[in-house]
Design goal:
The chain has helices at residues 21-27, 32-52, 72-95, 111-124, 140-156, 167-172, 219-231; strands at residues 13-17, 57-64, 99-103, 131-138, 184-187, 206-209. The chain has 241 residues and is α/β, with parallel strands linked by helices. It has one domain (13-138, 181-229): Decaprenyl diphosphate synthase-like (Undecaprenyl pyrophosphate synthetase, 3-Layer(aba) Sandwich), CATH 3.40.1180.10. The N and C termini lie far apart (38 Å). The protein binds farnesyl diphosphate. Residues 18-23, 32, 36, 39-40, 43, 60, 62-63, 67, 81-82, 85, 134, 189, 214 line the site of farnesyl diphosphate.
Length: 241
């Protein structure tokens, strides 16, 4: 049992693509919903471990814009799980001084999920610890498209000239404009895909892919990911000093 994990140098933001709930359930001859339920439990343990080690931001990819096309029963259950998570985990989130937020199309979520999410966002607003950022109804291309629309409006209003549009202009118009870019991107279940997740922000993230399925991802697996991160030499396209 790992008691304490130390935060590696240079690690401010971890982003996780939580994948493999369905396969985890299948291995146990259960339905996909069983897998999501257990996936939801893993969220709590990982968020608490990250917050306790002093991480600034943890982003969890919980539901993509493409996931709306899953069978209605699965979508409904996931929404129910989000609601249960918000209701049950709000105490843990507040106790750990975390700030909760959602990145994505909050307006597409069922009313009750929106209500619990907004309450927790407000209640945790003045906390000073880790930002727990849930990416829900999120798509990286959608986020960039929205940023481009915003910039076009600013150009039309004469607030900015097209020649003055820089990478920073785009970054500053993303939903995550106030967050540091992820230093470490973790994907569980061994898939080598980005799946439209934070495609702008992960340009220089270190990527860690594990075969472990999300419901089995725990503090020990997190420690492995951090160990791998701490051995990386991040050059950001430059050469070693
Ligand atoms: C991917 O597994 C997982 C999802 C699409 C949903 C993620 C949701 C959770 C981890 C549970 C609820 C989360 C919260 C925050 C309460 P998959 O279904 O694609 O698995 P598969 O690739 O094995 O089929």
């Amino acid at each position: 049992m790992i008691e304490k994990i130390n935060l590696p140098k240079g690690l401010r933001h971890i982003a996780i693509i939580m994948d493999g709930n369905g396969r985890w359930a299948k291995q146990r001859s259960k339905n996909r919903i069983f897998g999501h339920r257990h996936g939801s439990k893993a969220v709590r343990a990982v968020a608490e471990a990250c917050s306790q080690m002093g991480l600034e931001v943890l982003t969890l990819f919980a539901f993509s814009t493409e996931n709306w096309a899953r069978p209605k029963k699965e979508v409904d259950t996931l929404m129910k799980l989000f609601k249960e998570f918000l209701k049950k985990e709000s105490k843990t989130i507040l106790k750990n001084n975390m700030r909760f937020r959602i990145t994505g199309q909050m307006h597409r979520l069922p009313n009750d999920v929106q209500k619990f999410a907004k309450e927790l966002i407000d209640e945790s607003n003045s906390n000073t610890g880790m930002i727990l950022n849930l990416a829900v109804s999120y798509g990286g291309r959608l986020e960039i498209t929205e940023a481009v629309k915003n910039i076009c409006r600013q150009v039309i209003d004469g607030k900015i000239s097209p020649d003055r549009v820089t990478e920073d202009t785009i970054g500053n118009n993303l939903w995550t404009s106030d967050l540091p870019n992820p230093d470490l991107l973790i994907r569980t279940s061994g898939e080598f895909r980005i799946s439209n997740f934070m495609i702008w922000q992960i340009a220089y993230s270190e990527i860690y892919i594990t075969e472990v399925l999300w419901p089995d991802f725990d503090k020990k697996e997190l420690a492995r990911a951090l160990e791998s991160f701490s051995k990386r030499k991040r050059r950001f396209g430059k050469v070693d000093e």
